């Protein structure tokens, strides 16, 4: 009934407000009761590199939840690892950084992902410093926050050109 009201009814804003409140209440309950661990996680990948990415993201979300980090940063060219992180429903927000406009647009559809487009370098330290500076200025992170950092590729090479993909998980503190 509410979906029809929001689509063609006289009070679409009110209908969306009720839908949002119900969704937020269910999400909050799910987090409080730790229901994410009951969601079945079927293997999506067949090839070994993709299975490794799935395992890295599953482990990263488990780490983020167990360590109660304040945010997850993922640096991605095509959004693949942001998608895998999202499917595991972590407690902290996922900030996904890419230098590709189309990837940023598509990541808007991922659960819990806040996509940001900016130029990225091959140096993960430089990328981290740049993104921390940006998010501090927006008030999204503050000194003393802990951040789990996930990286999925050599960011300056096209996907087909990367013979070895650099994948990592790090926990860093914001200065």
TrEMBL record:
UniProt domain Pyruvate kinase C-terminal: residue ranges: 54-156
GO molecular function: magnesium ion binding; potassium ion binding; pyruvate kinase activity
UniProt-listed Gene3D superfamilies: Pyruvate kinase, C-terminal domain
Protein name: Pyruvate kinase C-terminal domain-containing protein
Organism encoding this protein: Aegilops tauschii subsp. strangulata
Pfam families listed in its UniProt record: PK_C (PF02887)
Top-level taxon of the source organism: Eukaryota
Lineage: Eukaryota, Viridiplantae, Streptophyta, Embryophyta, Tracheophyta
């Amino acid at each position: 009934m509410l979906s029809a009201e929001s689509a063609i009814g006289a009070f679409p804003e009110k209908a969306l407000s009720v839908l949002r409140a119900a969704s937020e209440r269910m999400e909050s309950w799910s987090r409080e009761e730790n229901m994410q661990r009951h969601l079945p996680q079927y293997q999506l990948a067949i090839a070994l590199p993709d299975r490794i990415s799935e395992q890295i993201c599953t482990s990263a979300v488990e780490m983020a939840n167990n360590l109660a980090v304040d945010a997850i940063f993922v640096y991605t060219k095509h959004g693949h690892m942001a998608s895998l992180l999202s499917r595991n429903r972590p407690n902290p927000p996922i900030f996904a950084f890419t230098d590709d406009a189309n990837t940023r647009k598509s990541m808007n559809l991922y659960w819990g992902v806040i996509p940001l487009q900016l130029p990225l370098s091959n140096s993960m330290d430089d990328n981290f410093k740049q993104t921390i500076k940006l998010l501090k200025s927006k008030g999204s992170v503050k000194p003393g926050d802990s951040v789990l950092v996930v990286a999925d590729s050599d960011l300056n090479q096209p996907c087909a050109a990367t013979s070895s993909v650099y994948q990592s998980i790090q926990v860093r503190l914001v200065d």
